[in-house]
Design goal:
Number of helices: 8
CATH class: Alpha Beta
CATH topology: Rossmann fold
Helix content: 25-40%
Shape: globular
CATH superfamily: Vaccinia Virus protein VP39
Strand order of the largest sheet: 3-2-1-4-5-7-6
Number of domains: 1
Order of helices and strands: HHEHEHEEHEHHEHE
Distance between the termini: 31 Å
CATH architecture: 3-Layer(aba) Sandwich
Number of strands: 7
Radius of gyration: 16 Å
Strand content: 15-25%
């Protein structure tokens, strides 16, 4: 795991990180979860691993509909996550058993890793069926500019819908759904702007984020 990335997340002020119940965070996470639920019906008997869970933007809402566990390499982020049972782990060296989760979900982590393809391979290994990935979309002009200006986010400059699709293909994952989605940045969007930006959630090709739902091939 990149040392500078770990140092950044460990020192990040609590005030800089919004809670999972903040309106902007909900506007960021819930539309993606809604899309996922078109393919995977809510069921507490379905297990989900949230890789790079942070302080629970997705872990918390997922915990209400699936049997959810979160992992993150930052002890600070884990301490802030409201879901019990979350653990400190390295996404490139998952300790989970093979095929131990029905769904492995990962949002906004791969662009921080030196070897994202290896991480996806590990996620596929511990997944029983689904691997769901979401990353920033460098083809959105504002996300492109943000990624240039913030050094910790520059890995996102590689990530487009086609790039993430190729990563799934190279790991022999069958893509069942892919799109760009969203116009709300969870930690920066002012509350008053959230309802306006939600109107642009479904712009074709220019969404702020990529969402891919894939299956392990039999």
């Amino acid at each position: 795991m990149n040392y500078l990335q770990k140092e950044f997340w460990e020192r990040k002020s609590l005030k800089e990180r919004r809670s999972p119940n903040h309106p902007a965070v909900k506007a960021f996470a819930l539309p993606k979860i809604k899309e996922i639920l078109k393919f995977i019906k809510p069921n507490k008997n379905i297990s989900l691993l949230d890789v790079g869970c942070g302080n629970g933007f997705f872990t918390e809402p997922f915990s209400k509909i699936f049997n959810t566990k979160g992992i993150d390499f930052s002890e600070k982020m884990i301490s802030m996550n409201p879901v019990k049972g979350c653990e400190v782990q390295d996404a490139n060296n998952l300790r989970e058993k093979e095929s131990s989760f029905d769904i492995v979900f990962c949002s906004n982590l791969l662009h921080h890793l030196e070897n994202p393809k290896k991480a996806v391979k590990g996620m596929k290994k511990v997944s029983r069926k689904y691997v769901v990935l979401s990353e920033p979309n460098r083809n959105n002009p504002l996300m492109f500019l943000f990624s240039i200006l913030k050094k910790e986010e520059r890995g996102a400059l590689k990530f487009s819908l086609s790039y993430l699709k190729k990563m799934c293909d190279s790991n022999n994952l069958k893509i069942i759904y892919s799109r760009t989605i969203g116009a709300v940045v969870p930690n920066k969007t002012p509350v008053w702007l959230v309802p306006i930006l939600r109107l642009f959630d479904n712009l074709p090709f220019l969404g702020f984020y990529i969402l891919i739902i894939s299956e392990k091939k039999s």
